[in-house]
Design goal:
Length: about 575
Amino acid sequence: MKLVPLPTVVISRRSRHPGDDWAKARSWLGGAPRLGRMPWPRDKNGRSLHFFAQLDLAELYAAIGPSPFPDAGSLAFFSGTVAYVPEGQALSPTAPPSDLPPLSEVGGASHYHRNLQGERLFPCWPVKFTAVDVPVVDDPDERGKAQHAAISERFVRRQYNLSAKIAFDGPPIPRWWRIAQHFADHLTDRREHAGKVQADAQRMLDWCQAQLASAKSPEEAKKAQASIEMYRKKLAALERQKPQFLAFVAEVLEWTGGHEAWALMSEPDWQKLVAFRARQPEFGDFTQYWGDPGIEELTRKAFDALPGDGAPQFASLPADVQTLIRAKRAPRPKWWHSAWLMADQLREAAEVNAPRVVEKLQSEIDAEGTKLRRASPGGALAPIWSMIGGKSDEAKKLEASLAAKEAKLTELTTLASAFQSFMRETGAWAQSRDPWTSMTAEDWDDLSARFKRGKQEFEAFAGWQLPYSPESLEDMTIVALLSAEERGYASLPGTVRNLVNREYLLPAGDCHQMFGLGTDVQGAVWEHENDYLLLQLNYDDLMHWSFGDNGVYHFWITPEDLQKRNWAQVAMTVECH
């Protein structure tokens, strides 16, 4: 059966505002399904399946009009099946079964274990459908570009995951002439060091020539000669480049001279600065830039070089510049939820990792003990044979290894007891406070110290369980606040809520969608090119979906099964990089 053309439907997060009742949403990602009288789906082995999304078909009909799909009811998507829920049957959330496996089994982020209610459910995000018209193009690459362009016309496409740093970055830095002058100051400094760059290269050439003169073997001589040739070429290149570099610096200085530092640059002047900045790698040995020195980095460095509040030079800055510096350098707000997160991760490590580490070492000891008994003489005459022949090398190695591992086991057992106490005490400390209230600077210092202790003293159990840094806990808290209960969401500054509503309605990669051309990772898109892409779910930081390494879930249905509405035959593929 031939596919009936359907528009690409983007599934985007609904913007959220204080007072919104998300419980009335008819389509959503994560959270709990509303299955009515239907049992929670399980696989053929009886294991409970994880829930991903429930999409209302009446809302889909409103977005695309008549289609082969029902115009009422909803589809609930699980990790391995799709369930049709008739209209009016599902009025309240269905509680997940107690035996639901860890979320990490279906690609949940390693740091996210459960929601605040202790359920193994992803955050709940109500969504809406947007049909986009994509030109009919036969070439798949061109079709993909056309689809991407059509979506980009309707939505802001972001590149990065949301972080506390991004959320509280403050006002944008104006395009001051001070940025261009900071660039000129850097070049002036590098011009003063140009002679030293050449002298350093000459010194290395002299050293290599001395190495050649004292070489004791053909290999040493060959290596020294290769280095000599390299530094000769470098010196020649520096000699050629130096006049060009000096002329470049002079051009930039002349261009930036005479401008008021805090005046705004025109668009042509800004683009000229971008072009100047891009030329730095041409003179990498002189400028110390060999890669791609982006204009954003220059802007940040120019801003970071400004004096801080309290410095003598700060008072001489214009009032608006002072205000911007204070705004961008103000301490970020921090919530007790970050401490809750760390406590949860420590508990996970204590419940799972610590016993696993001890059991693994004990298993190794048992296995080596068995090997040692096999390598040692047996029977009543074993002591005599040992005295005559001594121990074999294998037996000696096994005995030494066993002794070391038994000592390590004793150490780990003691450490595990201390870790349990640390985990319980930290949990009591964190959970004695409301997760959506603010931490003081002293509270944050306490959390950071506990984090460091967990990372270092209890590295064997929690080192990899905890995220990279305490700042990572901040990032997770911002994400949690966005889908939290009303009280938590309202505690976010309006600037952060507005930023997410404006720029974070789609994932950082490709979008969640129905129909259209799916994301090609490992070829599933082409294996199912004669099927409908019923749903695509991409990795998404705000959903805690990592899906392996930036992966994607696809749900496919054949035209025949769609016509029969045979949802049980939906095929799911999951791929990652």
